[in-house]
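so ive been stuck on this for like two days lol. basically i have the seq below and the ligand is zinc ion, smiles is in there too. i just want the complex predicted, nothing fancy, no docking runs or whatever. if the output looks off dont worry ill sanity check it later, just need somthing to start from for the group meeting slides
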Amino acid sequence: MLYKFSEKIYYTKHRFTYLEPSIGYVKGKNFSIMIDAGNSKEQVETFFNDLKEYNLPLPMYVILTHHHWDHSFGSIYTNLPVISSSKTSDYLSEMAKWNWDEYSLSERIANNIDTKYSVDILKKVYPNINDINIKIPDIKKYGDFSMNLGDLVVYFYSNDNSHSDDSLLIYIKSEKLLFLGDSHSKSYKTIPLSFDKTKLYNYINFIKDINFDYAIPGHGNIMTKHDLVSYLENEYSKI
Ligand SMILES: [Zn+2]
């Protein structure tokens, strides 16, 4: 199911149960882009069917917000060139070398590389773990960059935050909209999940300086800048 934010911006409904993140879509005059690849073949196929139903052109590129499986494992099924930060590409290259079997998954939980929660959902999405096929991004970008889609420019900000150090925050200035990925979320590598105080402080200041009205998170509903900043400041006050 697609939500329409504006004539140029659409995004899919996220599903907590399958850790399906929202996939973003930015329609340009010359070409369109897809933000995140989703977690599976099924999510990619549903997204492409939704685009067809809405008479929207297929995207020309996929841009990943960060390397986590739920945002990146759909890449192979898009048959599109994938763009990511250099760090995301490095993480995915590393993960492509990992063994994907019961024993290795349990080991990674024990070593805090992954959480039981994430692995349990991964196994639900991939009942046959051998089906996992990690695509290494075709184009890796260093630092910030932008893409001109013809009638609008998309800005990509490289960001090191509590959740992951390889994030891209994706800003569409003309629509005053920011795609967050999971950049506003806690780290899952700590028990309990937590924010890093310095990183959160820097993150709040970073997004405060961006002129946006709405933010679309990977998992959750669209929110106003005010609500997002209030939430993060409240979290900061608890540390
Ligand atoms: Zn994530």
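The pocket of zinc ion is lined by residues 66, 68, 163-164, 182 (CB under 6 Å). The chain is about 35% helix and 20% strand.
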